[in-house]
């Protein structure tokens, strides 16, 4: 497999089919190969028991929830929760559709077929439930693996802390646990992310079922271990280069856009600085969205082409796919 040709083909597919950027934004922002967990963080203390001294006293002294919460506040809270839930469901649906549609369309374009926004959307909706099941299943697998690694190590550390009060022993246990856990987590989750990339294409391009795609993805990874890891390493390098380039370009554009805001802030014209800052942010936001969409499209196309090159797979006709 020629890796330079792989990068070049993914780049030109991304550049020449800009309608894919819509799907690339959602596939990139809600990438199916990332297994991250957000843990709630917070402090103790009774509700609304803020420090009401100093500069914050006027604000928190008039906080509307100091007294009993009325029906209006409850209704507003429910509306916000429902709205957030609806937005989450819509976003999740777009992520699922985008992953399926992109994989199908990139494979079709690579074969020389013509695709449009509508055909990409239909391809995503036709595989919606299987891709959704794939996302849920791999998320659960990731959690299970994380628990399987973290639980034994955590128990060992807890046993050391309970068994001795010696600072040296506790520090050594934590350091050794980190030295074991970090490489293990990297190996496990990098492997899982690569398997997930192959499994998604097995579902969309070959029309496999969710459970079958896991075994197929593992088999492809195991039989092409060196090439799979090299494809992943190249992608990481490309992401680093692209991120640095985007940061430099974003900093240059942001400096120009926010220069009036900075000057007004230095002149202590707070209101004018806030207004110009909001305007600059509104102008900059579309550029950031477009950059994220293009990068997400490239990454997805890159893995689809890598899958096709590694496996020599041809797409299954839509009429014969598993529904």
Query: Structural class of the helix and strand makeup?
Result: mainly alpha
Query: What is the gyration radius calculated from CA atoms?
Result: 25 Å
Q: List the secondary-structure elements in sequence, H or E.
A: HHHHHHHHHH
Shape: globular
**Which whole number gives the mean pLDDT?**
82
Number of helices: 10
Report low-confidence residues grouped into runs of 5 or more: 33-66, 315-323
Q: Say how many strands there are.
A: 0
The helix content is over 70%
First-last Cα distance: 32 Å
Characterize the main sheet.
none
How would you characterize this protein structure?
- It is a single chain.
- The chain is mainly α and 323 residues long.
- It has one domain.
- Helices cover 77% and strands 0% of the residues.
- The longest helix is centred in the C-terminal third of the chain and has 42 residues, at 225-266.
- It is globular and about 60 Å long.
- Residues 33-66 and 315-323 have low confidence and may be disordered.
């Amino acid at each position: 497999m020629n890796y330079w040709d792989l990068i070049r083909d993914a780049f030109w597919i991304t550049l020449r089919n800009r309608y894919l950027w819509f799907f690339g934004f959602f596939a990139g922002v809600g990438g199916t190969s990332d297994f991250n967990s957000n843990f709630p963080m917070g402090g103790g203390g009774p509700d609304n028991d803020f420090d009401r001294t100093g500069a914050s006293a006027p604000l928190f002294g008039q906080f509307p929830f100091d007294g009993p919460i009325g029906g209006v506040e409850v209704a507003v809270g429910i509306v916000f929760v429902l709205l957030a839930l609806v937005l989450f469901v819509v976003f999740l649906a777009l992520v699922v559709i985008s992953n399926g549609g992109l994989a199908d369309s990139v494979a079709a374009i690579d074969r020389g077929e013509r695709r449009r926004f509508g055909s990409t959307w239909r391809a995503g909706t036709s595989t919606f439930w299987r891709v959704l099941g794939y996302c849920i299943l791999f998320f659960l697998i990731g959690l299970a693996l994380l628990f399987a690694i973290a639980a034994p190590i955590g128990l060992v550390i807890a046993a050391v802390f309970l068994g001795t009060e010696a600072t040296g022993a506790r520090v050594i246990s934590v350091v050794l646990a980190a030295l074991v856990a970090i490489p293990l987590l990297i190996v496990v989750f990098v492997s899982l992310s690569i398997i997930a990339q192959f499994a998604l294409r097995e579902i969309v391009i070959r029309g496999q079922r969710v459970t079958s795609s896991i075994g197929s993805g593992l088999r492809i990874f195991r039989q092409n271990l060196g090439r799979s890891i090299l494809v992943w390493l190249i992608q990481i390098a490309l992401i680093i280069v692209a991120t640095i380039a985007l940061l430099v370009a974003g900093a240059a554009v942001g400096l120009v856009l926010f220069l009036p805001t900075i000057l007004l802030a230095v002149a202590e014209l707070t209101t004018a600085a806030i207004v110009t800052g909001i305007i600059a942010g509104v102008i900059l936001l579309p550029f950031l969205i477009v950059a994220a969409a293009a990068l997400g499209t490239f990454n997805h196309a890159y893995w689809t082409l890598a899958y096709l090159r590694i496996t020599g797979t041809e797409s299954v006709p839509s009429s014969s796919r598993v529904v």
